């Protein structure tokens, strides 16, 4: 009986969240966010990320506030559109984020950095990898910590996808989202790319965006599929990657440092 209740807990939590966002004007239909798992966090939560959490599910996973996620994608896109594309770096050490980051860069003209981030890339002008960005988009604060730290040193703006367990240190704009799932990362980067083009006046409507979400999704090899099926997405990923609404008064505004940097630009 307990096992049955546990299985039913997830659909009930998803249903409750769907009811909370019913009628909201979002960038995509609410079910796209829910089906991609973009709102699913981890069992751990950092102090900085508590304000982005809608509720905790019976299985222990935190559920992120979808409306805030949607709002932050809009803000991020407007900000990205104001910076010359050649001065933007999009970083992803995380395997599942590499295809989304590369497709975003290809679509918008940003510079993708999806292999190992060489220390000094942003700070050492003598390095052959040297690149001095004005804005850095990070896929996951922990795995992209070196890039975030260096961006902070050169006073580049940092936008990062953050799950419930992440620290937001040195991050100017948080996009609260599942930054571990393939479908979630594909959806978030796809939306960012589309909204950036719209903000630049290169698209008049959503329908003019010819790229599909599937194009932004990391494709699993047969071996990766087997590993994922056997142990879940996180286990499969580790195997191949070696080397909210409840409180409407919560502060959803970008950080003060973010607003100051935006004003300077």
From TrEMBL:
Keyword DNA repair applies: no
SUPFAM superfamilies linked to this entry: Ribosomal protein S2 (SSF52313)
Biased composition (Basic and acidic residues): 224-237, 248-257
UniProt-annotated stretches for the region Disordered: 224-265
InterPro entries: Ribosomal_uS2 (IPR001865), Ribosomal_uS2_arc (IPR023454), Ribosomal_uS2_CS (IPR018130), Ribosomal_uS2_euk/arc (IPR005707), Ribosomal_uS2_flav_dom_sf (IPR023591)
Gene3D superfamilies per record: Glucose-6-phosphate isomerase like protein, domain 1
A Pfam family the protein falls into: Ribosomal_S2
Assigned GO CC terms: small ribosomal subunit
GO molecular function, one term: structural constituent of ribosome
Keywords recorded for this protein, A-Z: Ribonucleoprotein, Ribosomal protein
Biological process terms in GO annotation: translation
Cited NCBIfam families: uS2_euk_arch
HAMAP family from the UniProt entry: Ribosomal_uS2_A (MF_00291_A)
Family, as annotated: Belongs to the universal ribosomal protein uS2 family.
The protein's name: Small ribosomal subunit protein uS2
Organism: Candidatus Iainarchaeum sp
Lineage: Archaea, Candidatus Iainarchaeota, Candidatus Iainarchaeia, Candidatus Iainarchaeales, Candidatus Iainarchaeaceae
